[in-house]
Amino acid sequence: MSYDHIVVGGGTAGCLAAGKLAGEHGARVLVLEAGPDDRNPLIRMPAGFVKLLGVEKYMWFYKSVAQARLGGRRPIVPQGRVLGGGSSVNAMVYMRGQPADYDGWADEIGDEHWSYDALLPYFTGMEDNARLNDDYHGVGGPWKVSDLDHICELSRAFVLAAQGIGLPHNSDFNGRSQRGVGAYQVTTRDGRRCSAVDAFLRPAMASGRLEVKTSCLVHSLIIEDGRAVGVRYSQGEGRTVLEARCDGEVLLAAGAIATPKLLMLSGIGPADHLKTHGIHALVDLPGVGANLQDHTETPVVALCNGPYGYYGHDRGWKQMRNGLEYLVNRTGPVTSNGVEAGAFFDPDDLSNDPKIQQFCVPTVYLDKDHTDQQASHGLTLNSCVAKPRSRGSVQLASADPKDQPLVDPNYLADPEDLRLSIGGVRRAREILQQEPLRSMIAREIFPGPDKMSDADLAEHAKRFVKTVYHPVGTCRMAREGDIGGVLGADMRVRGVEGLRVIDASAIPTIIAGNTNAAVLVVADKAVEFITGAKRRQPAGIAPRREPSTLQTA
Ligand SMILES: Cc1cc2nc3c(=O)[nH]c(=O)nc-3n(C[C@H](O)[C@H](O)[C@H](O)COP(=O)(O)OP(=O)(O)OC[C@H]3O[C@@H](n4cnc5c(N)ncnc54)[C@H](O)[C@@H]3O)c2cc1C
Predict the structure, then answer these.
(1) What three-state secondary structure class fits 194?
(2) Among 188-192, 364-368, 445-449, whose mean pLDDT is lowest?
(3) Would you state the pLDDT for residue 464?
(4) What ligand 1 atom has the least distance to the C-alpha of 218?
(5) How far is the CA of 249 from the centre of ligand 1 (A)?
(6) I need a surface site. Which of 419, 454, 510, 520 has the fewest CB within 10 A?
């Protein structure tokens, strides 16, 4: 088959774009995905998320460079490596962030079409919400959003306890206000994960215009006369470098770490850096790989005084009982994503707009690179800095496409990120002291009851702070003349024809919330730009805040 477009990376953005281009716009599309297919049943089961986190077959475990503010520690940054990308392995929390996030994008990009009011119809248009159908939510779309069927007693107790410190109950973090505490909505339906493959790619397969090749690692772009005309790739363990070409556009959707790597391997990036690896710079774009942003979270871990939460539910007779209940009824603990509830608040003043997203994990939960975790019934309250100020980078380690790049998230580089993390830890402790949670807790193990001063908590953060798996921003959209910009408002790569970046890399500034839904909207916009489809008009709802002043380039 000859192709109109080639999509590099079959993740969240890649699946949406490929599915829509082939299914709705009649294009012939090739998707090249480095990871395997998504047939593993664990991917469909919401509780499978925790298991998948440790499986090399389905994850890239990017190891960061030594982190200056973490005493040289090198935390991992796991990312999806399977058809569906992050949407096949993520925790399924459905979150959009704050309207001000997108208004900030519009200011940075210099285009009001990236403002929240302009993007809201894209969120609602793709949504099929099982509970909400109002100004902020839609029904009938391909993207399934539901309340969790199963919420354990620890998560319920957390929601009540957090109200005890003065947080309002919030039944919709994506609605009128983000502030408060409540159960998350998740991207599942009838106890099954809804990934970008399920929502966008699979339905378009029947068109016959879509070819999806898994286990295909793209090495670089083929650029001729200033135009991207195809890609070089290898299949499986094969050493042969194959080529695929297209008549339309090459769309980069390999995620915020691999997409800048591919641009640099293709001679698009900071000329000096490329030169050190013997790569001739076709386009000197200093912003490629810069501006890496990620959410970090700092845990408070407590042990329970009884069998609360999910410890041991994946072993022995409990596993058999849970598995059977799931197989027969699609109910029970297997339908839980393991992160059932959370809160948004400003630790300095609970009545302010949120600066921390707190995740309630009803088990002892630390990343795979922490070996000293205790296996027992427990609870982890993770405080995530919603709008981190620290900025990092992705650079090439070598000119070999099979080598991991140098990932420097520069965690906690900005003192405000550390200060807010400490504030989040203190609020988590306050919540643990409220009933009904208080009566379920035996003792705090991390940071530990003797760690009370800011200096103690800073040390704790440095030791335990970890990724929330949300890298963005490494090929950011920007207004004309912004030297660090990589893409224009239409997501075209500056200085090259026929090439767009359509994934998390394109996001100028991280949103205050989990990133998957924002990436879907970014990819949806890309499809519009590529096809020239008419822009949807903003829904005629009253803005819920003063519109920002927008300057157009
Ligand atoms: C463990 C985890 C938990 C998360 N939890 C949540 C959550 O609960 N809610 C939420 O909203 N967000 C969550 N996220 C974040 C969300 O999933 C991501 O923001 C989103 O998937 C990013 O989409 P993307 O298209 O930019 O990249 P991805 O979805 O990562 O897709 C990139 C794809 O490109 C492929 N690829 C990479 N390099 C190459 C190459 N050279 N050749 C070919 N293919 C390549 C990758 O294998 C991958 O499949 C989570 C992410 C992870 C990893």
Answers:
(1) coil
(2) 364-368
(3) 95
(4) 42
(5) 22
(6) 454
Atom of ligand 1 nearest to the CA of 258: 38
Residue 523 domain boundaries: 5-40+196-291+472-531
Is the confidence at residue 154, as pLDDT, over 80? Answer: yes
**CATH code assigned at 495:** 3.50.50.60
For ligand 1, the distance from its centroid to the CA atom of residue 79, given in whole angstroms, is 6
Query: Which bin fits 191, alpha (ψ -120 to 50), beta or left (φ > 0)?
Result: left
The string of pLDDT tens digits covering residues 16-67 is 999 999 999 999 999 999 999 999 999 999 999 999 998 999 999 999 999 9
Residue nearest to atom 24 of ligand 1 (CA): 255
Ligand 1 pocket list (CB less than 6 A): 8-14, 32-35, 53, 78-82, 85-87, 89-93, 95, 217-218, 253-256, 258, 262, 469-470, 503-504, 514-517, 519
Q: Is residue 503 a part of any domain in this protein?
A: yes
Report whether 31 contacts 20 (CB < 8 A).
no
369 CA from centroid of ligand 1 (Å): 20
* pLDDT given at position 315: 87
For residue 144, give both structure tokens.
């399934």
338 lies in a domain? yes
pLDDT for residue 381 is more than 60 = yes
DSSP state letter for 5: E
Residues 179, 216 within the same domain: no
For residue 513 the two structure tokens come to 């919330």
Q: Of all atoms in ligand 1, which is nearest to the CA of residue 9?
A: 34
Closest residue by CA, ligand 1 atom 46: 81
Both 353 and 246 in a single domain? no
Q: Is residue 65 part of a domain?
A: no
Whether residues 207 and 310 share a domain: the answer is no
Residue with the smallest CA separation from ligand 1 atom 16 is 516
Q: Is 470 among the catalytic positions? A: yes
Q: How far is CA 411 from CA 271, 367, 466, 479, in A?
A: 26, 15, 9, 27
The tokens for 405 are 């790049």
CATH of the domain at 342: 3.30.410.40
Q: What's the pTM?
A: 0.96
Question: Using an 8 Å Cβ cutoff, are 357 and 344 in contact?
Answer: yes
Q: 163 with 285, same domain?
A: no
Say whether the ipTM exceeds 0.90.
yes
- Structurally, the chain folds into a number of domains equal to 2
Residues 442 and 312 in one domain: yes
Distance CA 274, CA 277 (A): 5
The pLDDT tens digits of the residues spanning 301-343 come to 999 999 999 998 888 999 999 999 999 999 999 999 999 999 9
Instruction: Copy the structure tokens of residue 367.
Output: 């990343």
Q: Looking at the CA of residue 32, tell me the nearest atom of ligand 1.
A: 43
Q: Please indicate, yes or no, if residue 353 is contained in any of the structural domains.
A: yes
User: Of 464, 485, 501, which closes a domain?
Assistant: 464
CB atoms within 10 A of CB 490: 15
Same domain, 313 and 167: yes
Distance (angstroms) between ligand 1 centre and the Cα of 220 equals 19
Q: Pick the catalytic residue: 295, 377, 460, 470?
A: 470
Our mutation pick for probing the ligand 1 site, out of 516, 522, 525, counting the most ligand atoms within 8 A of Cβ, is 516
320 and 443 housed in the same domain: yes
Cα of 262 vs centre of ligand 1, distance in Å, is 16
Any idea which residue has 């690179």 for tokens?
369
- On whether both 304 and 213 belong to a single domain, the answer is no
**Average of pLDDT values for 508-527?**
98
Beta bridge partners of 7: 31, 251
